[in-house]
Amino acid sequence: YMGEQLAMHFEIARGAWDEIADLTIEDGMHLHHVVFPPQGYNQEQHNELVNRLNQMQWAQPALAGLAISQWRLLKSLNMPVDYMLGHGFGEFIALSAAGLYDLKTLI
């Protein structure tokens, strides 16, 4: 799943996912539940989560979680990111990484 290994192995990456997930709750469903589904889901339950990720209100925060977690991880490893590019919503993610938007405004 998108960014799951990154979030599991690096606390800094998990922190970015947590911040964005806490801003993304709809119908009692948390972004973590959609992007990192619990073990033991049957195919029907899995398909429902995949369908949610095809919806903009879930897809955009998931993409932001992945991009921001990658950016923060690189920064924490002293690998400065001189440029970030994006297309569409990715441009806003890049602007958020540059400090022009906070995560709440981005989401």
Describe the structure.
The structure is a single chain. The protein has 107 residues and is mainly alpha-helical. It contains seven helices and two strands; from the N terminus they run H-H-E-E-H-H-H-H-H. Strands 1-2 form a two-stranded antiparallel ribbon. Strand 1 (25-26) and strand 2 (29-30) form a beta hairpin. The longest helix has 21 residues, at 56-76. The radius of gyration is 14 Å and the shape is globular. The two termini are 21 Å apart. The mean pLDDT is 88.
What is the topology?
Elements (H helix, E strand, L loop, with lengths): L3 H6 L1 H12 L2 E2 L2 E2 H5 L7 H11 L2 H21 L12 H9 L5 H4 L1
Antiparallel strand pairs: 1-2
Helix pairs in contact: 2-5, 5-6
What can be said about this structure in brief?
The chain has 107 residues and is mainly alpha-helical. 64% of the residues lie in helices and 4% in strands.
What key attributes describe this structure?
two-stranded antiparallel sheet; mainly alpha; 107 residues; 4% strand
Structural class: mainly alpha
Report, as a whole number of angstroms, the end-to-end distance.
21 Å
As an assembly, this protein is single chain
User: What general form does the structure show?
Assistant: globular
The helicity comes to: 55-70%
Mind describing the biggest β-sheet?
2 strands, antiparallel
